[in-house]
Specification:
There is one protein chain. The protein has about 230 residues and is α/β, with parallel strands linked by helices. The protein has 10 helices and 11 strands. Strands 1-4-5-6-7-9-10-11 form an 8-stranded parallel β-barrel, surrounded by 4 helices. Helix 4 links the parallel strand 5 and strand 6. The radius of gyration is 16 Å and the shape is globular.
């Protein structure tokens, strides 16, 4: 289970259904502010998570970066692993990012120009591919979705319309991706509501889930996670 921090203008925002222009600073009972370290600390009070997913929304949209906030998180929580999607689509930038030691690199399909960067990074254990969907449509170059042999070991299936929606995970799409690449680890993102959803994902052979809303609103608790 991988908690999500969506960063915009240096704070954590509440993501909902991929409508980024409507994201606002998060208000959560787990933290007294929307500062990244405060929210991360609050999530860690639920369960001793080992990995966090971070979407640098400013970087994805070409409006600067949240690298300062990332460095602060890395400094304050040195034992955590951060999966960071920051819109990188260039091999040189990918190498530079990985050399900065701020986190593992998530290559979001929506920001890729073609399938070359994904293929070149296929064997790097610090690179994760995010297959992004809006509705039923894959967002990104067809060369990525059509070439499962070029995918790295870890794959996120990001259903943007379900993020923050409490609609439940897209089990059908997850099963389809897993059947295309049965040797890869597939992670669900978008719509997870509760422990029953997690159990269903585990039964379907899904390696893990990216979670935000259900942790903040308490429909997924530390006790439930411990039992699972």
């Amino acid at each position: 289970i991988i908690p999500v921090l969506d960063l915009k203008d240096g704070v954590v925002v509440h993501a909902r259904m991929g409508q980024r222009d409507q994201y606002r600073p998060i208000e959560t009972p787990l933290a007294s502010s929307s500062q990244p370290a405060d929210v991360a600390r609050g999530l860690l009070s639920v369960h001793p998570f080992r990995t966090f997913y971070i979407a640098d929304l400013d970087a994805i949209e070409g409006k600067g970066t949240n690298n300062g906030a990332l460095a602060q998180l890395k400094n304050e929580f040195p034992s955590l692993t951060f999966w960071v999607d920051n819109g990188i689509a260039d091999f040189g930038q990918a190498q530079q990012w990985l050399g900065s030691d701020l986190g593992h690199l998530v290559l979001g399909s929506e920001t890729q120009n073609d399938g070359q960067l994904v293929r070149r990074c296929r064997d790097n254990d610090q690179v994760i591919l995010s297959l992004d969907y809006r509705g039923d449509a894959f967002v990104g170059p067809a060369a990525i979705i059509d070439a499962a042999d070029a995918w790295p070991k870890k794959i996120i299936v990001m259903t943007l319309a379900r993020v923050g929606s409490a609609a439940g995970p897209d089990l059908q799409r997850l099963a389809a991706i897993r059947s295309k690449a049965p040797e890869r680890q597939v992670y669900a993102a978008g719509g997870l509501r509760n422990a029953a959803d997690l159990a269903a994902l585990a039964a379907a052979g899904i390696a893990g889930a990216l979670v935000a809303t259900s942790l903040h609103n308490g429909t997924l608790t530390g006790a439930q996670i411990a039992r699972l």
